[in-house]
Amino acid sequence: MHSAAPVPRRRGLALAVLLCLGLGGVGWYAVQQMRQAGPPVALHHLHVEHGVPAGGQSPAQGPTPTPGVAPAPPPVAVLPLPADASVPAAVCAPWLARWAALSRPLCEQAQLAPSGAQSVRGRPIAWRDVAPPASQVAPRRVLVIGAMHGDELTSAALALHWVPLAQQALAQEGRAVHWRFIPVLNPDGLLARPATRTNASGVDLNRNFPTADWERDAPLYWDKRTRRDPRRWPGPAPLSEPESQFLHAQMQAFDPDLVVSIHAPYGVLDFDGPQTPPQKLGPLQLDQLGVFPGSLGNYGGKHLDVPVVTIELHHALRMPVRSEIHTMWRDLLAWMDRHLPAQTAR
Q1: Residues paired with 259 in a beta bridge
Q2: Which 3-state string (H, E, C) describes the chain?
Q3: pTM above the 0.90 mark?
Q4: Residue 21 has pLDDT above 80, yes or no
Q5: Cα–Cα distance between 137 and 135 in angstroms, integer?
Q6: Residue 25: is its pLDDT beyond 90?
Q7: Residue 114 forms beta bridges with which residues?
Q8: pLDDT tens, residue by residue, 203-213
């Protein structure tokens, strides 16, 4: 019985030797693989995906961003056209009654709709979008504002003239620009008799935006430089007015690449922002008027780094001729092509 004991002991030793050889081979193979793969990755560089579908894209996070390329911002919804023709007609009716020179077809064919925002006296602030189909993301967004000063009626009319030109540029030239038109920001001032620069609270909306040191500079400028001109009162506080609050909200939500603010009657072209300004738009030559506390140009161009082109038409009640309207438009598009390149647009 004792002579049989060495056999299982030898088998055990043999199995142990084979096991060691096997583990050694596996270890050697793993080391070689690690050497080929490069140094180990630090734990804080590891990224763990949770619930990634078969396509490799997390529904919560979207596609993996390309290194060095900023992810595209979410698209801005395009405002729907009013389904009922009576809506644009109702928007235009008081403007047509106020200014006989305004064309009914021009106004009603712009298909304006109430934005939901209202003036001090409860009048609707209307708007209109011209944009590519929802399937096509517009690389640029442009916000056009008229009649911030209610007594500059031609500024509203120019914005209305540009609505069909934007449609034509989209349909015939394929310009993928998302335009948002607000032809009359200050309906109370426009409909007053006589029309007023200020809103119904007596505030100059173009001095009511939250520029740097507004609380100190805006009242001081009004007191010392304008000698308390009531037409240029900046208001009791920045964004004290519903009209400026609405436009401020559009600067945030619409996030424009360019703002075009239409005024009258200085007959020049003004500009604020980091880009090279346009030298002319049609008959208007560049003449930068300076930076004013609380102005939209100061707020957009200096604070937000969004270029603000300010058009000062020659007359507040007499429109430029059609050829000048079209030339201003073409010059604006040409400047956009040069100074709002696709890689910096959306």
Answers
A1: 143, 308
A2: CHHHCHHHHHHHHHHHHHHHHHHHHHHHHHHHHHHHHCCCCCHHHCCCCCCCCCCCCECCCECCCCCCCCCCCCCCCCCCCCCCCHHHHHHHHHHHHHCCCCCHHHHHHCCCEEEEEECCCCCEEEEEEECCCCCCCCCEEEEEECCCCCCCHHHHHHHHHHHHHHHHHHHHHCCCEEEEEECCCCHHHHHCCCCCCCCCCCCCHHHCCCCCCHHHHHHHHHHHCCCCCHHHCCCCCCCCCHHHHHHHHHHHHCCCCEEEEEECCCCEEEEECCCCCCCEECCEEECCCCCCCCCHHHHHHHHCCCCEEEEECCCCCCCCCHHHHHHHHHHHHHHHHHHCCHHHCC
A3: no
A4: no
A5: 7
A6: no
A7: 126
A8: 999 999 999 99
What is the β-pairing status of strands 268-272 and 280-281? unpaired
Residue ranges of domains in the chain, CATH in brackets: 116-344 (3.40.630.10)
Contacts of 13 (CB under 8 A, 6+ apart): none
Do residues 193 and 167 lie in contact, with contact meaning Cβ atoms separated by under 8 Å? no
Per-residue pLDDT, 342? 57
- Average pLDDT score over residue span 91-110: 97
State percent of the chain over pLDDT 70. 77
Closest by alpha carbon to 123, among 243, 254, 263, 253? 243
What pLDDT, on the 0 to 100 scale, is given for residue 134?
Answer: 79
pLDDT-derived band at 73 (thresholds 50, 70, 90) equals low
Q: How many angstroms separate the Cα of 17 from the Cα of each of 26, 33, 208?
A: 14, 25, 88
- Give ∠ CA 289-292-293 in degrees, rounded to 5: 175
